[in-house]
Fold this protein.
Amino acid sequence: MSASTIPYRLRPNKFIDREIFVDLINHLVPQRGASEYVYISMGGMHLVDHSIVYRRTGIPNLYSFDHEEKTVRRQNFNRPLETVFCEQLGSDQLASKLDQIVSNFDNAANVVVWLDYTDPNQRLEQLQETAAVAMRLQPGDILRVTVNTHIPTLDENGDSGAWKAAGAESPGAYRCERLRAQIGEYLPTDLRAIAETGFPSAMLGSISVTLSKASRESGAGLNFQPVLLTSYKDGQRMTTATVIVDSEDHPFRADSKTWRFMPKDWMDVLEISAPDLSLREKYRIDHEISKSSADINQSLGFPLSETENKSIAAIESYKMLRRYYPSFHHTEA
Amino acid sequence: MTEETPAELFGGPTKRFFVSMLTRDIELDDAILDLVDNCIDGAMRTTSAALDSDKPYAGFRADLTVTPEKFEISDNCGGIPSDYIEEAFQLGRPNIKKDGDLPTVGMYGIGMKRAIFKMGKTATVFSNADDGAFHVDYSAQWLNPENTEWTLPISRQGRKNGDNGVRILVSDLKDEISKAFSNKSFLNRLMAGIQDHFGYLMQKGFEVSVNGVDLVPKTLGLYTSAHSGESEIRPFDYSGLFDSVEIRVTVGFFRALVREAEIDKETEAPVDAEAAGISVVCNDRVILLGDRTIKTGWGDAGVPRYHPQFRSIAGLIEFRSNDAEKLPISTTKRGLDAGSDVYFAARKAVTEGLKTFTSFTNRFKGIESEANEFFAKSARSDVKTTIRLAQEHGTQVRGANAKKYVPVLPEPTNKESRKRISFIRPDDEVRAVSEYLFQDSGQQPSIVGAECFDRFLKEARK
Ligand SMILES: Nc1ncnc2c1ncn2[C@@H]1O[C@H](COP(=O)(O)OP(=O)(O)O)[C@@H](O)[C@H]1O
Ligand SMILES: [Mg+2]
């Protein structure tokens, strides 16, 4: 596992995805109090996520890990505040270190863990690590897992006929077989084919199987409820599940009335596809925001995407995610 | 001397032994597989088609409902005829041979009862057969380990309209069972287990559904091409008869060779998700799945031990006999009796097959992708239904009633002999060299090592 080094400003959809996540944390942590939580993820060189989580949610306990010693040194330089712990640790060791990490911080009892995986060649290990971490979580914890769902990683050559030689019924069945060969029991058995657009829901299905395995093996009656399921494509398509943990005796809920991105089930994925807007376009749409997307499209007088329908969908997506929209400016520090 | 008083001890079983001890020896999913086994035994007794025909089980099915509230399995496989009822509900079969010439696997007379005891607080078995219908209730009282009552109430009536079949309803589940049944990963594994274990029976027409999902058979396919004088990728194939048991052994590649870089990663992964290894099938039932141990010849008789580099190799050993007792099935059901002579006969063939493909793999070590062109010329086809290389093109095996087909596999074009170099260095040193060579500290260690070698080779040859 390695954190991608491309900065957020080149990945507007990842930016929006994280903004929604920060919003979600704010929605959830007041039940127990922000100071009860430790935020744990791979911070990358600049600890961008940690700074934002700290500033925006008030979670004071921050932990970053990376398997590279020199990255950890750089993180220590960039620490936004004294109470950030940066440690050299592989994601495969995280599960067994979890309790120790929490005990580093006074008063902390719960965790927000983000396993931000990018490597398409290690899906089995990633799901195994996810299960190992999940079964050590406690009611009130929040787990977020990002996985690579770039379709060419299952089917490098497109329709070259590899699926025929492999004796598969269709390209979709071939992809499904490839993924099953990679992750075996973690893939839903009743999944028979992965359509061009079906990879995100296939992996979300697998994450849900992974978590129910963790639930069973935790021996603690843990429930994992999905509260945010997103997919976006800046370069490679990535898919993220965020779940909350509770048990019968220790409920921990997200309120679907006030949390508007609450998925109906594991298949209900929010597609984040922000149209690339200039500042001027953005202001114009903001000005007309109460109109229907079709009307805004008409009033713009030019398409934002290849087809009219896609343009309207882009405006629709913008309207829903406007609050999270990045506006990057150049600043001198 | 005191007078000896003749007395008696009770030497029989206790209820507790059956309802709460015996059930611990079996996993929940295996207990359920036992019930599916019974449906298939039923279909064998009922079908009029020859069992070695294409689809003798077409039309026969078992439908399972597995929810936190109830468990139910219902089939249309003939039901339990009057003559069989008495024995069916006894714990242990008084008469092992009751199915005569039929290749059923039921033998010990325990599967159905054990599954019920494992899952239920109460349960009912319904049957509708040609000569009448009945149902038998297991009450909470009867199932209480303290209770010493062994008789069961049965209500009989005339044959009902509709299919002949058995329905087992466990309407009140034990708490831990109900919890398991609410778990997605348990259900997922159960479904996969049914597809794996009954794949060859489903291939012959038997259908199974779980919670409304129709399952699909999982069977082994290997790369092959039509027999010819060309060296191409084809499986090793053996077909013979031993003590009235038909044996077929097929070993080959089910996928292209694994590249070295992939292997590095996978040696670290604790679970191997793929179908590599040898499976054993008796009368179409899988009794051993993807084995990679000495049981199936790995690490024995010149075959190297299993290693992730061999994860493209798979094989199938098939036994067929109408006399279930001749099959190498151990008493712990669903298990292989690896010590029987008929199994040794098959194992000899397997080791030969494995050797063929492990040495091919070794010859292409480090140049795995060179083999891709050969794989591209072949295609995967189903072992059990389509590969007939031994029967059609095999040579006689001396001293046995058997034929075998040893494929002539392609050779690397670059025939220079090759050596493997491997060594271990600290992580940060590997990363440092990787950074130096590739401006990327995260390259695969094997690639870093190879690059070092290649650069110095250039130097050395200057
Ligand atoms: N689904 C079924 N269809 C027909 N007969 C069945 C079915 N289930 C059970 N039986 C009858 O009940 C008997 C006992 O089953 P079981 O306890 O599994 O022991 P075994 O299969 O070893 O005989 C079977 O031999 C068979 O006669
Ligand atoms: Mg049985």
Q: What stands out?
A: The radius of gyration of chain B is 27 Å. Residues B 34, 38-39, 41-42, 75, 77-80, 84, 88, 93, 106-113, 166 surround adenosine-5'-diphosphate (ligand 1) (CB under 6 Å). Residues 427-461 of chain B form one domain. Confidence is low (pLDDT under 50) at residues 266-272 of chain B.
